[in-house]
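Blinded run. Sample ID left blank on purpose so nobody reads anything into the name before looking at the predicted structure. Input follows.
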Amino acid sequence: MKKAFAFMLACSLALGVAACNETASKEQTTLSWWDTYGRDGTEKSVIDAIAKYEEAHPDVKIERVSVPFSEMQRKLLLAMVGGELPDIMIVDNPNHQALSAAGATADLTELVEQWGEADQYFEGPWESTMYQGRNFGIPFGSNNLALFYNNDLLEEAGVKPPTTWDELKEAVPHLAGTTDGYPFSVAAVRSEEGAFQFLPFLWQAGGDLHQLDSEATREALALWKEFIDSGYMSREVLSLNQQDIALQFVNGNTAMMVNGTWQVEQFRDSLEFDWGVVPLPAAEAQATIIGGENFAIGSSSEHIQEAWDVIMFMQEEEVLMQMVKDKHYLPARKDLIEDPYWQEDEMYEPFAESMEFARARAYGEQYPAISNEVQNMIQAALSGSIPIDEAIQETASEVNALFEKNQ
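Blinded prediction complete.
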């Protein structure tokens, strides 16, 4: 009591009772924040944004933790068991539904409805935040896949960047004589990167994972297998990730490759040849795939409203634009992607255009296991260890059983 009285007396003398009451009533709220951005420059986007928020809201302190990407899912599930989930998290969008199904992310449906800006987002990234018709997050930023090409080699071969599968099939034989490497490359490694690269081709052929035993799946696998068997694509793609094929492109060992938005700034002003980007070639449909991350709130958070306020701050145009640029991403919002930064840059514009038909890996909580089966199918079919039809039938049976396990 004596300490409290002395505190109030001091406040009265120095500032007045009203000011002191305001100071005493405003306790600082501490929010925990987890993301997977490391010291490779990607953390700048969130560090700067957090600093801006804290400056504007001195009553809130955000304690950020960088979690290794490969450990994020496991750590979140362990934290959920202990009731110690972070207040704010940035999660890889293909994992969002699985986390929501497990109960790790707070249901934000009512807050989103009150906010009223859901229609400003592209369908692909927004769908990745949804689970069973409810909303469990807000997209942060997106990337997608497009076709990079070495224009020097294409001009030497007398071909233009292909916009359809037919044009792609016609171009690769002409390119075979212009390089000591290969005309075309994808990353078919047995990991999520392999599934990430294959799914657009499946969708372009008119297929989907829900109907995997289909002619569309056969066409997509046959396209890749034909390129390998004909020497237009290296058999090594079965063990190459997206950075591996990017290095092949840089070294002039592949004339065209499927790769993502994040490569643009790595290549700009550093390649020794003329290069460009176009949307992925279309077949029955035009399609690419969404990568990137989403904001979510931990289901055990005692500060859901405060965490929501932070996320809303991060969605303000000036803040979000700078974060996305720092990450070398694309905005998930339709209004922001009209900015000249993306529309007037010849390398980013094809990716911006592709957001209109970019799809999410929104296949429910069993998607990680489904992806694993798809990866096995790709490896078996392209290596020739079993015929394409057999690989598809075996995989379709496993995938259908996994879909039935979805809640």
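Unblinding after everyone has recorded impressions. The CA atoms of residues 154 and 190 lie 30 Å apart.
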